[in-house]
Design a protein that fits this description.
This protein is an alpha/beta fold. The chain has helices at residues 3-13, 17-31, 34-37, 105-119, 151-156, 166-182, 187-197, and strands at residues 43-51, 57-66, 69-76, 81-83, 90-95, 98-103, 126-132, 145-147. The chain has one domain. It is built from seven helices and eight strands; from the N terminus they run H-H-H-E-E-E-E-E-E-H-E-E-H-H-H. A five-stranded mixed β-sheet has the order 1-2-3-7-8, sandwiched between helices. Strands 4-5-6 form a three-stranded antiparallel β-sheet. Strand 4 (81-83) and strand 5 (90-95) form a beta hairpin. The longest helix has 17 residues, at 166-182. It is globular, with a radius of gyration of 17 Å.
Length: 199
């Protein structure tokens, strides 16, 4: 049984959005294990919360660092059929006779990309990726919207005219991990900020 199929089976058994989201992030993280991604130098930083100068916070699921670039990844672990348009603010999910809406993850992640770029002093291009772990991405919404089984090749084959050096990759990884380990913003503070923002 493949990693992807196993992940989907386990994910279907989880019954809360939080647990499904967490497990989806674990599945994406596993793609970067050398056993799957390969031994070439690469780094992954998971679940980092960055505060902007105006005190807003952004929780980024994953930042992948590889010679082809820096990738800001938004993970969606959603079952059912998903329909949406690239520029619509809300997408619809149809699952087992029920319908609900989600925030357009392209727009959501574009905000994360901007925050990450500013955090890194605009020294690097940041590339957006939205990955659907259940391999049910909507059609015709953009090349950066991927199914889980497309993620590794997308990153490895990304056409970057100026590949990152090993020193650059190490530096970006160190900056992000040091910030995360310093615990500047906790998950509870981030949730409080979200509640204030959406009031």
């Amino acid at each position: 049984m493949s990693l992807f199929r196993l992940g989907r089976i386990i994910a279907y058994s989880l019954d809360t959005p939080e647990s499904r989201g967490t497990f989806g992030e674990m599945i994406v993280d596993s793609i970067f294990h050398p056993a799957f991604f390969g031994e070439e130098e690469h780094y992954i930083v998971n679940n980092i919360i960055i505060e902007t100068p105006d005190k807003l916070t952004h929780q980024i699921d994953h930042v992948a660092i590889y010679k082809t670039g820096i990738f800001c990844i938004e993970t969606k672990n959603i079952t059912g059929q998903i329909k949406g348009e690239r520029n619509y603010y809300r997408w619809r999910v149809f699952n087992k006779g029920m319908t609900y809406e989600i925030e357009n993850p392209i727009i959501q992640n574009n905000g994360h990309v901007k925050v990450l770029s500013i955090f890194l002093n605009n020294l690097f291009d940041i590339h957006s990726i939205i990955v659907f772990t259940s391999c049910n991405k909507p059609k015709n919404v953009g090349g950066e919207v991927l199914n889980l089984d497309e993620l590794k090749d997308y990153i490895k084959d990304y056409p970057n005219q100026k590949p990152l050096t090993s020193d650059e990759m190490k530096a970006v990884f160190a900056i992000l991990t040091d910030y995360k380990e310093d615990g500047v913003i906790s998950i509870d503070e981030h949730i409080d900020n979200l509640k204030k923002y959406h009031k």
